[in-house]
Write a structure and sequence with these properties.
Layout: H1 2-18, E1 30-38, E2 41-48, E3 53-62, E4 65-77, E5 84-97, E6 102-103, E7 108-109, E8 113-127, E9 133-146, E10 150-163
Antiparallel strand pairs: 1-2, 1-10, 2-3, 3-4, 4-5, 5-8, 6-7, 8-9, 9-10
Length: 164
């Protein structure tokens, strides 16, 4: 397991240093949108600190509760495809399971419970040049450290209205 983790970190590092940073041509400063996926539907806000670094906040609702996630993301262009970028990042989450909900990822039926943990994220995003829209998809491996120590994957697609 330790070797796989070291290999993963090494590969991310190689991609980080060998890939060009996102260019401002298809850049936006702020994006507001909706993300749909498993297991949540989320409101999302993304704010770029510069051409490549962004902060993203998500508020989630699902059939078993609600949650919040804060992420830092670093974006890279994909050569030859203007407007298309891939990104990686990480952050933390806090979620609450309601008493009338069943969380399929913890196996805990109908219990009021709070969860907190760390998140990683990796995805792709396309920013339209002449229309203030960005679309994308990502996956997020998650580990809970509080509530029920457990891991799972979130995945989703999103659309954002962008302000340049």
């Amino acid at each position: 397991m330790k070797r796989k983790f070291i290999l993963f970190v090494t590969l991310i590092g190689v991609f980080f240093f060998l890939t060009r940073e996102a260019k401002a041509q298809y850049h936006y400063d702020l994006g507001l949108g909706v993300k749909v996926g498993s297991p949540w539907m989320s409101g999302t806000i993304k704010y770029f600190l510069n051409d490549a670094s962004a902060l993203e906040g998500l508020v989630h609702v699902g059939n078993f509760g609600f949650g919040m996630t804060a992420l830092y993301e670093h974006h890279f262009i994909i050569g030859g495809l203007p407007g298309l970028r891939w990104y990686i990042g990480g952050g933390a989450h806090l979620a609450f399971q309601t008493s009338d909900g069943y969380n399929p990822f913890t196996g805990l039926p109908r219990a009021n419970k709070a969860y907190a943990g760390i998140d990683a994220v990796g995805g792709v995003e396309y920013v339209f040049e002449k229309v203030p829209i960005a679309i994308g998809a990502d996956v997020s491996p998650i580990i809970n450290f509080a509530g029920n120590v457990h891991g799972w994957w979130n995945a989703g697609t999103y659309i954002r209205y962008t302000f340049k």
